[in-house]
Amino acid sequence: MMPKQGDIYLADLNPVKGHEQAGLRPVLVMQNNVLNTNLSTVIIAPLTTNPKAKGKLTTFHIPAKKHGVERESIVLLYQIRTLDKGRLMRKVGELNNEQFSEVKKQLHFVF
User: Fold this and answer.
1) CA–CA gap between residue 51 and residue 31 (Å, rounded)
2) pLDDT (tens digit, 9 = 90+) per residue, 18-74?
């Protein structure tokens, strides 16, 4: 499996602790493609369908039926984490370069 930056995968995030996003859910691949090619791990940001997350400073909105997500979703950039690539189950969609650039703008508030 060769994920690319901007891809959306279904991933198993369990086990977790505390307030980490859990379960089987879509995730956005954040890591650059050089590292994606050379590492067995991948940096991701989980997606949620919880409307309370919409509009927060460190999030990115994905409309329903767009980019491989069935329901309106929010990328939680404040929940970035590293996963083993074995947790990625299947690719469900991707963001284009323009959209991923918008995601990267939100990262300035995280780092």
Assistant:
1) 26
2) 887 888 999 999 999 999 999 999 999 999 998 878 777 788 889 888 888 888 999
**Residue 56: its pLDDT value, please?**
78
Q: Which two tokens stand for residue 45?
A: 């940001």
Q: How far is CA 17 from the centre of its chain?
A: 19
> Which residue in 18, 63, 53, 37 sits closest to 45, CA to CA?
53
Pairing mode, strands 59-62 and 41-48 = unpaired
The torsion defined by the Cα of 70, 74, 77 and 81, in degrees rounded to 10, comes to: -40
Tokens of 56: 């927060």
pLDDT of residue 18: 84
Structural domains in the chain, sorted by start: 7-107 (2.30.30.110)
Tokens 């859910």 belong to which residue? 25
What sign results for the dihedral spanned by CA atoms 23, 41, 64, 103? positive
